[in-house]
Design a protein that fits this description.
The protein is of the alpha+beta class. The chain has 2 domains: 196 residues, no CATH class; 83 residues, no CATH class. It is built from 11 helices and 16 strands. The strands form 6 sheets. Strands 2-1-3 form a 3-stranded mixed β-sheet. Strands 5-4-16 form a 3-stranded antiparallel β-sheet. Strands 9-14-13 form a 3-stranded antiparallel β-sheet. A hairpin with a 2-residue loop joins strand 11 and strand 12. It starts with a helix and ends with a helix.
Amino acid sequence: MKLRLAFLYVISAVLFCLIVVLALENINNKEEEKKEEEKIEFESGSTIQLLRSATGQIETLDLNYYLLCVVASEIPFGYEYEAIKAQVVVARTYLFNKIINDKEELADVCDSYMHCQAFTDIDKLEETWKNKGFSETDIKNGEEKIKKAIIETQGEVITYKGEIIDALFHASSPQKTEDASAIWSGVDIPYLKSVENVEDENYERRTSTNVISYATFKNTLIDNGYIHDLTLDEFNNIHINEYTSSGRVKSIAVGPYCIKAENLRTLFGLNSTNFTLSIRNENIQFDVLGFGHGVGLSQVGANTYAKAGKSCEEIIHHYYTDVEIKDINSEQMKRGEI
């Protein structure tokens, strides 16, 4: 009798364990199916060719995955949802403008922010965020926010008189954005005008300071062909030569030479051309306001306006003059009639 009871107990335990295992497998299968469904739902069905700058390899990526990686690379996922949406539309617009007007030789676009838009695969970004102390919940919520913005704005691009615009953007422009003509050889781009801008004053890169020695300043300018020589007396008399219409520095006088502020920004790593300068003890000091070239959408400004209740569309219309938001998949767009 005892042996029979023990046998039944063992059989019952085995059956129970089997039921538990099967239940867990069923749950895991459903979770995998759900993930696959979400993946399929998120995919756009359109692909792009991405050039990997480090290896020279070309990869075929789903358009929406590309946008997810770009937006997650370019703007903090903790920003307001409407600011994220605006960045998504800007990123999509920037991509299609690039494909139409400045396509890579063998691909649609590259992964370098120096030439196209910043692009880092989402799994690598997740590791970066974890190392910065973000929780898995924060990371997941951030990714879902960007995915939702991509889906909600599916196909939306910014146009000016029927053409997809060059949707430039930058991090921060306290007070005013810059007119494109002040940066790029006086070329007038009607939708990239200077506009008034309000930004959160707590942005960590709102202000910065660069101190450069006389020797470094002189040698850098000589090595890059901007000057032939620079005496200490000339160095001590460097001053701002001209301002742009937005109040940024357009050029500075360096002895007998005139150097564009945008060139200085690149050469010496200045955060923007909105600076003052002072010279003492054989050093030149640049006190800088803002971050980036200042043209187009300001990310900090977009977030500030979103906090104030502005929509994605209102944000875009604020930073890009006289534009329209259109569906790139519309028949009118395909026929070039918008």
